[in-house]
Amino acid sequence: MTTWSDLQKWDGDKFDHLIDVLVAIRHKASDSGEYVRDIDVSSGWTGAGATAAQNRRKGLANSSAFLLANLGEMIRITGKAQSDVNTVKTLVFEVQSLADHYGFNISTIGKVSDPNPIKRSTGDIIAPYDTDHENKRKDRKNALKQCQEKLEYVIQMARLSDEIYTRDLNNIANGTMVAKEGLDYPTPGLSDIPPNKKDPAQVAAWWNAHTDGEKEALIRDNPDLIGNLDGVDGTSRDKANRWRISRDKEALTRKYTPDQLKTNQAYQELSAIERSLTKNNSDTQLLVYEPATGEKGHEKARAAISAGNVDTADHVATYVPGMGTSVKDSMEGNVSTVTNLKNTAVRQDPSQKVAVVAWIGYDAPPNPQSSHDYSVMDLNKAKSGGESLARFEEGIRGSRDARVGGRSNVHMSVLAHSYGSTTASYGMASVRRGVVNHFAVFGSPGIKDGAWRMNVPKGHNYVLEFNDDVIRKANAAKKFWKTDDSLGWHGKDPTMDLGFKKLNPYGPTTKETGHSGYLADGGEAQIKIAKVVLGTAG
Q: Cα-flanking dihedrals φ and ψ of residue 159, to 5°?
């Protein structure tokens, strides 16, 4: 019976070696299968010997296909088991963080208790409205219930995952697998698409199981899938996405006149992406390309471009911009900004390889003054964007881990400005534990819950704020309105959160302040943020 004490030892990294061995065996089996497939025992040969040779070749082909089917299934179910264990690991951390935040105790058998419950006072009873004391009592009581319910859910999930993996292993051991594809199939034993496209860990295991030739064929035959698939390496995504933007731009050129293209949103977005890819001396990767669908919340294209190679860099940082950002109007400037940041980091330590991603992977809210769109006042875009960001980060980590057959040494950070910091905080609250090493916000209108909810190591959250940042005034207004000094406009004010280390943006190199001055090239704030990129901010 799985207990709370057992779950604290669960670690998906323990599957890395097994998956690496399975992948290596599959690659060898695939090569052998190709050899068997190409054996010619029919040309210019007849008689009993020829018939026997043909039958023997057919038997070898069937055996190879059966072996590849079993290996493919082993990789699939083990990749899913690893993903499930990592999810449990993250949820265990979240439960423990919630308990620690409120000072709750968790017993070895999974019972949550409150050693310092808040009792209802006489003032609470006679007051015609809920007092601050009563609100704190209710919050603590609800948190205790939530902590217990989450703990019980994690235990149930862990038990179910264990049962499913055991069942699937027994099915393979009992010889119930059937080879559905012969050796003539492009990827024998593996599905054309990953078993779960929304799980980067499973995608990484699926992608790494393919041979180099199979990967090239998938990029060629299905670039729309591969280009945005979190868990696929950056080089492959870049190759697929560059082909896609060339195809889409050519299609628009055939459809519209030159004058029409000047005002065509999709064409202008593609042009902005192409110009952005020339930055950093063209040492860039197009990691996300999602054309606008016209659906609510996806009226604009989404893209992510790295300055540097995310597959080989020692440090990979992702920059999340905020209000008013779009691919058409902001991509080029953002790629220039991250290129400058990368160069500043490299100057600090020339021995390190750095890649910084400009991530516009969500429809950031527009400036309400010019658009009359007030979506910046709510959290809907932050929540949906945060989910996409979490998968993007898990995809980079997963692809890097898969490439080395274990835990990669890549250091990963997320840097976020303005509304982007709110978006990123939702991502950091849901990203799997162990994916992101450092998180920095600047000009932040607020984050989800607080530092204790961020799935990064304790002490690895940072905040910068200029005194003349307009967001500082907005946060002050919310504090006054709600009579709560911990609040920002969109959640907790990270400058008031002891879990966020304050980095001083002022110094001898300060060039620009205000809401837009944090990444001014060569400025003190940029230098401090570059230290976060390198993991040396303290």
A: -65, -40
Rounded CA separation 222/211 (Å): 16
Own/partner contacts of 456-460, CB < 8 Å, gap of 24 or more, are 456/428, 458/499, 459/501
Tens of pLDDT along 476-506? 877 777 777 777 888 899 999 999 999 999 9
pLDDT reading at 46 higher than 90: no
pTM for the model: 0.89
Token reading at 208: 């790494």
Alpha-carbon distance 488 to 36, whole Å?
A: 66
Task: Tell me the C-alpha distance between 536 and 275, whole Å.
Answer: 32
Q: Which residues contact 338 (CB under 8 A, 6 or more apart)?
A: 306, 307, 317, 319, 356, 357, 358
Report the alpha-carbon distance of residue 53 to residue 270 in Å, rounded.
56
* 337's tokens: 């900004």
Query: Sorting pLDDT into bands at 50, 70 and 90, what band is 283?
Result: very high
The total number of residues shown for the chain amounts to 538
Banded pLDDT at 53 (limits 50, 70, 90): low
Contact 79, 19 (CB under 8 A): yes
Query: CB atoms < 10 A from the CB of 104, how many?
Result: 21
Residue with tokens 């041979």: 211
pLDDT at residue number 57: 66
Six token digits for residue 170: 């027994």
For the CA atoms of the chain, what is the radius of gyration? 27
pLDDT of residue 168: 93
- Among 127-136, 351-360, 521-530, whose mean pLDDT is lowest? 127-136
Residue 504 burial by CB count (10 A; 0-12/13-18/19+): exposed, middle or buried?
Answer: exposed
Q: d(Cα 349, Cα 27) in Å, to the nearest integer?
A: 38
Is residue 17's pLDDT more than 70? yes
CB 206 within 8 A of CB 230: no
Q: 249 — phi, psi (to 5°)?
A: -70, -40
What pLDDT shows up at residue 537? 96
Q: Domains plus CATH for the chain?
A: 4-173 (1.20.1270), 296-534 (3.40.50.1820)
Concatenated DSSP letters of 140-154: HHHHHHHHHHHHHHH
**How are beta strands 302-307 and 354-360 bridged, if at all?**
antiparallel
Between the two ends of the chain, the Cα-to-Cα distance in Å is 42
CA nearest to 183, candidates 57, 357, 277: 57
Contact criterion met (CB below 8 Å) for 195 and 204: no
